């Protein structure tokens, strides 16, 4: 963890230390996913970032009084007045449990339960190599397939929103897996974009649904995500040599998808992967 943070700061250029930010908005996106909007304490314009990059958030761990940092993807198009990140709460984790501090999701629940609008956190400069390069105007007109599972949608959402904000004419396919429609974050946002943009389509896989959920509207497939269920030309552009694939989610699922794409002849350089997970809290050294 320490080496990774040092590398982030080294890559940041002039922003080489932790900056103070304040939570200016906290939005519940679904029954278990929440977004945080952060603004700098000094009120100055923020440096931009490339869609798909992430920041480190550093906050105090209660009881042990130990600062801990975690990396979270920026989940919106780049704006100069705020950063937004989105995280999933671990509902089975009780922060009052003495053993909770060793749980990988402990920091997530601290942010969910104990950090609110007005609270301060420390933030690193945006970093990361899984990004859509928007620095060159119209660098590519090939289609983009954004594949995600669960809260792993956040870096793909940044790419998605950036393309929409730039009024890109590139064909965009949003492929997402969620446990159910009611835990799926940004569901209405994606549906609205699909309904108003002829170049955008979505394909949602769920494991369970309610009586009021409509196939073809709230979801498209049941069961584990499988690209075999999609049309290789219309939905995921397998035979277009310009197509780019951005895959974000649990390691096993993402590896399976990458293997499928490569097996279909997609070059590995056109497949970008970000594995989502949590890390245990390292214990402070005893003096």
Automatic annotation (TrEMBL):
GO terms for biological process: cellular response to nitrosative stress; nitric oxide catabolic process; response to toxic substance. The keyword Transmembrane helix does not apply. It holds the Pfam family NAD_binding_1. It comes from the Eukaryota. PROSITE patterns: FAD_FR. The keyword Metal-binding applies. This is nitric oxide dioxygenase. It comes from Letharia columbiana.
